[in-house]
Amino acid sequence: MAACLAAVAAPALAQLEAGFPSRAIKIIVPYAPGATNDILPRLIAPHMSEILKQPVVVENKPGAGGDIGVAFVAKGKPDGYTLLMTSNVAGVSAATKRNSPYEMSELAPVGLIGNQPMMLVSANPAPFTSLQDFVRQAKPTPEKFSYGTPGVGTLHQVAFEFISAAYNIKMIHVPFTGITQALTETSTGRVTLTFGTLASSAALLQKGSIKVLAVAAKNRLPAYPDAPTFNEAGVPGLESGFWYGFTMAAGTPAPIAKQISDAFAKAMANPEVIAAVRKLDVDVTPMSPAQFGDMMMADYRKWKKIAADANLVVN
What is the per-residue pLDDT across 24-60, written as a single tens digit (0 to 9) for each? Predict the structure, then answer.
């Protein structure tokens, strides 16, 4: 019986692969419009459309901190017609949720767009002059210090748990409904620290109401050369902020997956796309699908261990 089913399915699959794509391809963004993770696919989609000779459209499917959109693709039909705008937020969510609606293994890599550094910021002025000065002050009385995040179980919170473990400092967590509010409260000094990106922090940095203490990146940022990397500050392993890429449902036939990945790679090699992505302070990082997949799973395992060590579980 199995052999008969396989014999029937094989020609249909071959026909599907030969005619791909025969209709529009969707890129699902699991968040509301306007942020970096929404702008990026809108920059790339027209170029993929030109290569694939079919419309490539972006559709926002927000909710549950991104879980609704991610699960929609992860649990969807693996036919190459639905892609996911993915970031390490998906892995952090799966790592911290008691009952995640998806597994990271249900997503297959298409390609990495790039990395966007995160910066640890405080009010300016603050009662400490540097990250090391903050650590010296906070160790005796950590309950006097706090950190703000855009919510429970976010990348920001898990990153702070990582820092807390490295320095053995247990600060008070103050979750907000978004990063803008966390940054604003940090600028007033009501919250001691938060993480921001160059894009999200730009206005407050220009006003001089916050300052950069350290950066989650492999190298110091040219705009803030005095701010050390976390490696330099004694917190190895926190070498990147956000990464962004495209994934699709695992089990997509290899020839179709290759067509999609090749179209993505060609689009990302376009100088116009590279320039537009870099304007968002995202460092374009070419990577094969296999390399991206390995990176994605290694990142997920890292955050899962951090969450487990911190006993961080989101219901």
Answer: 999 999 988 888 899 999 999 999 999 999 999 999 9
* 313, 96 contact by CB (below 8 A): yes
Q: Report DSSP letters for 121-143, one per residue.
A: EEESS-S-SSHHHHHHHHTT-GG
Shared domain check, 127 and 110:
no
DSSP per residue, 236-270: TT---SEEEEEEEETT--HHHHHHHHHHHHHHHT-
Q: Which residues form the domain of 197? A: 118-216
Domain CATH number, residue 305: 3.40.190.150
- In 3D space, the residue among 250, 276, 256, 284 whose CA is nearest the CA of residue 52 turns out to be 256
Nearest CA to 29 out of 21, 16, 15, 39 is that of: 39
Domain closes at, from 199, 216, 233: 216
In a domain, 4, yes or no: no
- Residue that is last in its domain, among 158, 182, 216: 216
The arrangement of strands across the sheet holding 56-60 comes to 56-60, 25-29, 82-87, 242-249, 107-116, 283-284
Domain with 205 in it: what CATH number?
3.40.190.10
189: left (phi over 0), alpha (psi -120 to 50) or beta: left
* CB-CB contact of 40 with 7 (8 Å): no
User: For 126-131, which contacts have Cβ atoms below 8 Å and span 24 or more sequence positions?
Assistant: 126/189, 126/192, 126/211, 130/213, 131/213, 131/214, 131/228, 131/233
Binned at pLDDT 50, 70 and 90, residue 2 comes out as low
pTM: 0.84
**Percent of the chain with pLDDT strictly greater than 90:** 69
The predicted pLDDT at position 154 comes to: 86
